[in-house]
């Protein structure tokens, strides 16, 4: 229920992150350390403190809304924020050496911009109002635009930043126009109030449906779903790999959060209108993502098209919810979609982590052929690539298999058997390009000039844990799945 008073305690993580961000700006301004080590350590401390604060809030059952309904704290926000902190922390550990040898740490902007992007993601995750959703989205997007163009002398990165900026502005316009239509049709910006007006049948139906079309289009762009996917391969390939990982990790969690807030919390009463849209986006994403990935020789572009196909599975889970009169099926479907997104981000972190570790001064590990003979050079890293590719392909007993199975079960429970069959067929097609990477790693001869793999102990340890989680969560998925379903059930109006 909306509270009229302002409770700053609910927004403690955001306030702390803002303070840390400003402190890091000051420290960076007076630090002459060429590797920006004080800035890095302070950034990791900030992420650690935020993780503890959000975990304590979650454990103590802190929930509610403040700032007149603009900000919402619940189990879903706690879960997604903690996952975002972990994703950003892992990204910075993986990308530190890469950024250092490419002079991306000279000005220190990398860490501050990453934290401000994270702040925008946190606002998106805890938004209970159309205004705060847009505010968080723009804060995140502006920081990401700057991060992609961080290497000012790199023409390819600058081009990628321009593409993302132009298309991102277009998508933001779609979202904003859709929000204005929803406001015009209901007279409210608060999602809870919008839902009440729709449930009472007092909303202008035609304007709402038009608004939903624009909202879904904007959300599809942020998730990277077809036909709003055109930026994904170009931006993933053109960005410095460390920034590609920043872009492909935590922001996906925030985009998923606002999709749930808008469609499930605010527009639940119009599920019959937005579910067919998600179905079309999902099938197109599965088809184009998997089929186009087969033709890729660039590893980063292949992973980009892989992302598009995986967003198709996420959307299938979302469209399987909102089953009339069956809230338990709805929570299971949305929980499966949340589980899929969390495990996908975990897999993405390690996939690009491998690329970052194999890149070195004067060499970008971008082509699939750059992984040739990795098993001869480092059997441990090759084994991690094997786990990652098998998980993305959905091969048991890895977590990718269970994530796909959970979404397929939700589809079948909702009566969408044909869609489940289509999803399985495209997954089988997609397995080809993942297995091709494994073939290159294990059966091709390494390049004659292949340099030894150099990584810090932190990077090696993190990558090992990240890879092991693919197997652990695949064998024991129950705990995380239960957390996801409980977070959905307690946070959304089903």
UniProtKB/TrEMBL annotation:
Pfam families per UniProt: Proton_antipo_M
Keyword presence, NAD: yes
Topology term for the membrane: Multi-pass membrane protein
Biological role stated in the UniProt entry: NDH-1 shuttles electrons from NADH, via FMN and iron-sulfur (Fe-S) centers, to quinones in the respiratory chain. The immediate electron acceptor for the enzyme in this species is believed to be ubiquinone. Couples the redox reaction to proton translocation (for every two electrons transferred, four hydrogen ions are translocated across the cytoplasmic membrane), and thus conserves the redox energy in a proton gradient.
Gene that specifies this protein: nuoN
Sorted UniProt keywords: Cell membrane, Membrane, NAD, Oxidoreductase, Quinone, Translocase, Transmembrane, Transmembrane helix, Transport, Ubiquinone
EC number: 7.1.1.-
Enzyme class: translocase
Protein name (record): NADH-quinone oxidoreductase subunit N
Catalytic activity reported: a quinone + NADH + 5 H(+)(in) = a quinol + NAD(+) + 4 H(+)(out)
Location(s), subcellular: Cell membrane; Endomembrane system; Membrane
Entries under InterPro entries matching the protein: NADH-Q_OxRdtase_suN/2 (IPR010096), ND/Mrp_TM (IPR001750)
GO molecular function, one term: NADH dehydrogenase (quinone) (non-electrogenic) activity
Main location (coarse class): membrane
NADH:quinone oxidoreductase/Mrp antiporter transmembrane domain segment(s): 127-429
NCBIfam families noted in UniProt: NDH_I_N, PRK05777.1-5
Subunit structure: NDH-1 is composed of 14 different subunits. Subunits NuoA, H, J, K, L, M, N constitute the membrane sector of the complex.
Transmembrane region(s): 6-27, 39-58, 78-98, 110-127, 133-150, 162-186, 206-230, 242-264, 276-295, 302-325, 337-359, 380-399, 411-435, 468-488
Homology family: Belongs to the complex I subunit 2 family.
Keyword Cell cycle: no
């Amino acid at each position: 229920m909306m509270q009229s008073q302002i409770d700053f305690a609910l927004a403690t993580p955001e306030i702390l992150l803002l303070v840390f961000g400003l402190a890091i700006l000051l420290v960076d301004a007076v630090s002459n350390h060429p590797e920006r080590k004080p800035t890095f350590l302070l950034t990791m401390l900030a992420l650690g403190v935020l993780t503890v604060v959000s975990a304590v809030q979650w454990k103590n059952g802190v929930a509610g809304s403040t700032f007149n309904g603009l900000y919402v704290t619940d189990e879903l926000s706690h879960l997604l924020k903690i996952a975002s902190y972990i994703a950003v922390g892992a990204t910075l550990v993986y990308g530190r050496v890469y950024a250092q040898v490419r002079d991306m740490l000279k000005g220190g902007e990398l860490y501050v911009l990453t934290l401000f992007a994270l702040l925008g993601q946190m606002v998106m995750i805890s938004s209970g109002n159309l205004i705060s959703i847009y505010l968080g989205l723009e804060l995140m997007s502006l920081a990401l635009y700057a991060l992609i163009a961080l290497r000012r002398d790199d023409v390819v990165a600058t081009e990628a930043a321009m593409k993302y900026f132009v298309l991102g502005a277009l998508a933001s316009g779609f979202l904003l126009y859709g929000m204005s239509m929803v406001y015009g049709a209901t007279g409210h910006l608060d999602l809870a109030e919008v839902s009440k007006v729709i449930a009472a049948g007092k909303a202008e139906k035609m304007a709402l449906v038009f608004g939903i079309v624009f909202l879904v289009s904007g959300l599809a762009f942020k998730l990277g779903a077809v036909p709003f996917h055109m930026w994904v391969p170009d931006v993933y390939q053109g960005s410095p790999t460390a920034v590609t990982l920043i872009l492909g990790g935590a922001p996906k969690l925030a985009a998923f959060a606002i999709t749930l807030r808008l469609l499930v919390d605010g527009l639940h009463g119009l599920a019959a209108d937005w579910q067919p849209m998600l179905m079309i986006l999902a099938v197109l994403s599965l088809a184009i993502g998997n089929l186009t990935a087969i033709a890729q020789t660039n590893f980063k572009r292949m992973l980009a098209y892989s992302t598009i196909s995986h967003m198709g599975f996420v959307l299938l889970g979302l469209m399987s919810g909102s089953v009339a009169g069956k809230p338990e099926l709805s929570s299971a479907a949305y929980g499966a979609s949340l589980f899929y997104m969390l495990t996908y981000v975990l897999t993405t972190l390690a996939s690009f982590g491998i690329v970052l570790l194999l890149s070195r001064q004067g060499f970008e590990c971008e082509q699939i052929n750059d992984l040739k003979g990795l098993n001869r050079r480092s059997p441990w890293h090759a084994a991690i690539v094997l786990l990652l590719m098998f998980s993305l392909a959905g091969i048991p007993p890895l977590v990718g298999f269970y994530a796909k199975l959970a979404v397929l079960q939700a589809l079948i429970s909702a009566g969408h058997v044909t869609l489940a069959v289509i999803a399985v067929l495209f997954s089988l097609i997609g397995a080809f390009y993942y297995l091709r990477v494994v073939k290159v790693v294990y059966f091709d001869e390494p390049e004659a000039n292949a340099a030894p793999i150099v990584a810090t102990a932190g990077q090696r340890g993190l990558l090992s844990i990240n890879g092991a989680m693919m197997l652990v969560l695949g064998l024991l998925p129950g705990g995380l799945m239960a957390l996801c379903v409980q977070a959905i059930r307690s946070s959304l109006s089903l």
